[in-house]
């Protein structure tokens, strides 16, 4: 019953993170100090991705990479920040789901262990009961072979090798 609500909640969280990311993008480009930081981040990202692309395509990597103009850098940085925010929310939701699933599996495993222990105890009790019943059957077999006379000690009250005293 809880599982559909949890999954629905994570989906809603991911969906709601997109407008927040858009708001972060909008505000990031306006704040002067933050703007300079994100321009630096965008330029570093541009250098890294350009170098990586040049290596992938087999081009020379020792050439100078022209920096982005400020507006393109700001736009690239706020896009990067928005994407990082959305992926962070999605990653957090994924981690939450994995942990919840692991806890659920742990509870199921504990329940299986308890059931197995109960079955083992019941098996031991049944083994003791079978042993007790075998013992009773053996006793009854001994009494049956002796018959009624054996039970009442009427036949051969004394061993044959001993003499009875004359009275």
From TrEMBL:
Pfam families: OPA3. Signal peptide: none annotated. One of its GO terms (cellular component) is mitochondrion. InterPro entries: OPA3-like (IPR010754). Keywords: Coiled coil. Residues 99-143 form a coiled coil. Residues 148-167 are annotated as: Disordered. One of its GO terms (biological process) is regulation of lipid metabolic process. Residues 153-167 have a biased composition (Polar residues). It comes from the Eukaryota. Belongs to the OPA3 family. This is Optic atrophy 3-like.
């Amino acid at each position: 019953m809880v599982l559909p609500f949890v999954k629905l909640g994570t989906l809603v969280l991911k969906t709601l993170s997109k407008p927040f990311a858009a708001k972060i993008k909008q505000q990031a480009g306006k704040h002067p100090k933050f703007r300079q930081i994100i321009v630096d981040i965008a330029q570093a990202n541009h250098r890294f991705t350009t170098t990586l692309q040049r290596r992938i395509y087999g081009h020379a990597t020792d050439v100078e990479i022209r920096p982005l103009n400020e507006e393109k850098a700001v736009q690239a940085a706020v896009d990067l920040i928005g994407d990082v925010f959305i992926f962070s929310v999605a990653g957090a939701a994924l981690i939450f789901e994995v942990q919840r699933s692991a806890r659920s599996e742990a509870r199921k495993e504990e329940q299986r262990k308890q059931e197995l222990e109960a079955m083992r105890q019941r098996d031991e009790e049944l083994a003791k009961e079978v042993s007790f019943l075998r013992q009773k059957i053996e006793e009854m077999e001994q009494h049956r072979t002796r018959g009624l006379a054996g039970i009442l000690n009427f036949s051969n009250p004394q061993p044959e090798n001993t003499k009875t005293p004359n009275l």
